[in-house]
Amino acid sequence: MLTLYKARSVITMNPSMPRASAVLVRDGNILEVGEPERMQPWLEGQQFTVDEQFADKIICPGFIDPHLHPSMAAVLLPMEFITAMRWKLPWGDVEPVTDPAAFDARMQALHHSKPAEEPLFIWGYHQLWHGEMDKARIHQVSDQRPIIVWHRSFHELYMNDPAMSMAGIDPAQIKPGLQIDIDQGHFFEVGLGFAINRLNPWILAPEKYAEGLRRLKQVVHHGGHTSIGDLATGMFNLDAEAKALTEQLEGDDVPFRTRLVVHGTRLTQGGRKPEEGPTMAADLLRHNSHRLSFGHHIKLFSDGAFFSQLAQMQEPGYIDGHHGEWLAAPEELERHIRAYWHAGYQIHVHVTGDLGLELTLDILQKMQDEKPRFNHGFTFEHFGFSTPEQIPRIKALGAQVSANVYYLHELSDSYAKSGIGYERASQMARIGSCFAAGINTTVHSDFTMAPAEPLNSMWVAVNRISHEDQVMGAAEKLTQQQALEAITINAAQTIGMADITGSLRAGKRADFTVLDDDPLNCDPMALRDIGICATVFEGRVFPIP
Amino acid sequence: MSNSAVSSDSIPITLIGGYLGAGKTTLINKLLSHPGLPPGTAVLVNDFGDINIDESLIRSESDDGTVIGLSNGCICCSISDDLSKALDALREMPVKHIILETSGVAEPLRVWRHCHYPGFIPKAAVVLVDASNHAKRSQDKYVGSLVCAQVEQAHLLVLSKTDLNPGFELNRLTPQLSNQDPDLIDTLLEWRHIDETSEIASSSSLQPAFRTYTWHQAQDITQALLTDVLSTLDESVDRVKGLVATEDAGLLLINRVGDSLNMRCYRQSAQPEHLGLVFICRSSRSHEMHSAASGLGTSSIASQIARLDAGN
Ligand SMILES: Nc1nc2c(ncn2[C@@H]2O[C@H](COP(=O)(O)OP(=O)(O)O)[C@@H](O)[C@H]2O)c(=O)[nH]1
Ligand SMILES: [Mg+2]
Ligand SMILES: [Zn+2]
């Protein structure tokens, strides 16, 4: 059975034929992209339907987020969001809440909307907008219902008395020194670990987790994705995650495929040598199914978390003089990289600061000296800070970049003031330079660190507007064409799927994202508000209500 | 003081820190095979891709000690925090003392904070320094500041691999021992960092077996005075180490173990950062310790130190 999809315009991302007006599909694969009148040879003597439902829409290649975390999302999505930034979620937009009174009002509303005994988990609180939080403030909402208020960064939370008794936390047990302010109900850093261990029965309960994954499935669909990368499979527990992912993200009703990239150090943790890693990782390919597949990919880590200012920075470092952190000793990182490099893997390294990037570049240089490889796909993930001199090195070593460009929107103002100064803060996500150098460059959400909305990532990359409405590093802006490449063909390249998706051409899977407006010709500021009316995954239409 | 009951129930944790390859696991293995290891000692190992398979190494050495493997907390979040989990598990066991091998990239202070976990209390941060490459590593572009921070945050420094670099000197006014020191394990097990502001300092049941005094040199002294002070020290003084500037003999490197005093000229192009002496005193008589703990002024060591400052 053949289907001919007609559109106002088809954006192909095939540089040899950028535009068309129709796509002909058979059994989930593209037969031809072009003009209907030239497709007759395919249609001769065949049964076919002409599908006009997108006749006044724009068909793009299906969007791809090459780096997010379904497991983290599964934990977070069952919670209620009260955030300073807007989050579009399938069950309703989360409108920005930017002052303390509005935060309290929203807590009240949520409290009144829930059955009496159900605990209320809220995520997204940030003192910058929402004022100081404490237990008494939560008690004004309720001193009966357990209420947990989680900080936007995940690194601290507040609980009221019922929440503490639910979790079995006895205030008399808590002594000074631990990072818990029991009178305020405040748990941070180490104290957070203590609280989470006690909240885990609620957070990680299998049915909650499954519910979280079902919500993730909706989020991914509503963002317009047809492929995603899980860039640290096994971050909690490989077997449990693989099982839950198979249950929730495989099956005819799932409108996207997932590239699973296993967490390298978790894989060999517990006394296995890094050198055993490549064989262990290859063994995972046995579990591959239609939508869920491991490849010869591995995830490794260089420096610390961006949100906690633990990125490792070159001189002059942080304004307050603190240092970032290494997630593994440089020698250990090198040993892991060597094992996978020689085994022919595509290596994805989490790098946040320019010193973390420098270290990883030095290691990659060594690998190229030891065993030269082409098209190895070594990818710098996140790519928070970099120097201009590092860009040609990335290019020369044949590596690619997957940037969390949303950092620029959410964090550049505060990093300018209380992190590293304006110059470097405004130049985070130096991706204009990456495009200029000819580096394969994509952008990601690291969901739940940023909204899983490719059009939103595109909007940030093109406009580079901070949440305080300042243009940050205008010289690094992407064109609309580049930004669309970033979320389609370049992303497909990064997760090793450019042979089947990422652009529209004969032979690829029929993966489309169908838009109300043209993302290449619209007002750049309107990008993130373009309506997504449907996705098509392997020829099947999944409308977005 | 009101909290002393809670505190004395808390399980003390001794941190063993230091960069990758500094000899942490080697030291812990020594400790586990030590006949004097008190029952109820548990070992926690951070095995996040360590070059040596610490956990299995340690297991083969001792079947009695409780050994739990750890890995660093998750990168993107704190939902998976192995140390907290391990401590929660250990609380249910008859454990009296924990030795925690930190990851090679950990800053002892950050782990120290973690050891205030309910039911536990940090005891001392011991940091290993690799004599064979500390000088180079502390200048390293990537880990130099980390390695320096590890040394700065230590309460007790243990020098390893001095066999590979016998002339190595670490110019710090922090108590230090060699990993070849015959008293190393006993010292380590009993070492307790005293924070004068904490309740433990005044809780008599938890008096430390060691006391350290640090003399920061403000002005040059004579070699005669130095020799005199060092040879008439109170018998509880176990070790003295440091670098002293003298009017008549230049910089002197001091190393006294028990009764044997080693004093030699120290020549280096750079002016040392830290001048002074560290005294390690051992006491089995708790009343004496009590007086020592209540203030330097009453102890004879303190008056010896005062002589150095007065210059006579
Ligand atoms: N020559 C020498 N080698 C040592 C000494 N201490 C440890 N080592 C060796 O140094 C290497 C790393 O030691 P290990 O204890 O695993 O270091 P860790 O990474 O800090 O746990 C091992 O090969 C040890 O045998 C020492 O005092 N002298
Ligand atoms: Mg070790
Ligand atoms: Zn990530």
Describe this structure in words.
The complex is a heterodimer of chains A (545) and B (312). Chain A is of the alpha/beta class and 545 residues long. Chain A is built from 20 helices and 24 strands. The longest helix of chain A has 17 residues, at 206-222. Chain B folds into 2 domains: 7-206, Rossmann fold (3-Layer(aba) Sandwich), CATH 3.40.50.300; 209-310, CobW-like, C-terminal domain (Hypothetical Protein Yjia, Chain: A,domain 2, 2-Layer Sandwich), CATH 3.30.1220. Chain B has helices at residues 4-9, 24-32, 54-61, 82-90, 108-114, 134-137, 144-152, 184-190, 223-231, 286-293, 300-310; strands at residues 11-17, 41-46, 66-70, 97-101, 120-130, 156-160, 176-178, 210-216, 237-246, 250-257, 260-265, 276-282. In chain B, the strands form 2 sheets. Chain B has a 7-stranded parallel β-sheet, sandwiched between helices. In chain B, α3 (54-61) links the parallel β2 and β3 (66-70). Mean pLDDT of chain B is 77; it is low at 1-7, 48-65, 71-78, 196-206 and 285-298. Magnesium ion (MG) binds at residues 24-25, 50, 52, 54, 101 of chain B.
